[in-house]
Design brief:
Blueprint: E1 4-9, H1 15-27, E2 30-33, H2 39-42, E3 47-55, E4 58-59, H3 61-69, E5 76-83, H4 92-98, E6 102-110, H5 131-147
Parallel strand pairs: 1-2, 1-3, 3-5, 5-6
Antiparallel strand pairs: 3-4
Helix pairs in contact: 1-5
């Protein structure tokens, strides 16, 4: 059986945390916040997920900081994100591949966003991720199981 861990950062509304929890549940994976993750601990897993909200068109710095601490490895990984706008995966996939990871899947969904002037209008995508998004995240996780 594949041992999995989901590493995430969720800052404003818990959008990414909800997606991370859905993925972890479907994988039977451990859930760890990126700023609390120990590189030696996460490398004990066969499949490692990395995710966060998108901030200024890229993943949260804490996810990149963790990846910088990792040695070059041969592991399978996946990436996931939430954002107020469309799918923006930044350069996380490329950074993981430079570290030797094989990225076997990517997931994105919209999340409630109240950053900057959006706050004045109550934000965008209120109520997202919704139950349909969470089910899509669980299905994504089940598809990963078939790839490892």
């Amino acid at each position: 059986m594949t041992k999995s861990v989901v590493v995430y950062t969720s800052v404003h509304h818990g959008n990414t945390k909800r997606i991370a929890e859905a993925i972890a549940e479907a994988l039977g994976a451990k859930l760890v916040k990126a700023d609390e993750a120990e590189p030696s601990s996460i490398l004990k897993f066969d499949l490692i997920g990395f995710g966060s909200g998108i901030y200024m068109f890229n993943y949260h710095r804490s996810v990149f900081d963790l990846i910088e601490k990792l040695p070059k490895v041969k592991k399978k990984a996946f990436v996931f994100s939430t954002s107020g706008s469309g799918k923006i995966q930044g350069n996380l996939k490329e950074r993981l591949e430079e570290k030797g990871f094989e990225v076997i899947g990517e997931f994105h969904c919209k999340g409630w966003d109240t950053v900057g002037p959006l706050k004045l209008i109550g934000g965008i995508n209120k109520g997202k991720p919704d139950e349909r998004d969470l089910e899509r995240a669980r299905e994504f996780a089940r598809s990963l199981k078939r790839k490892v």
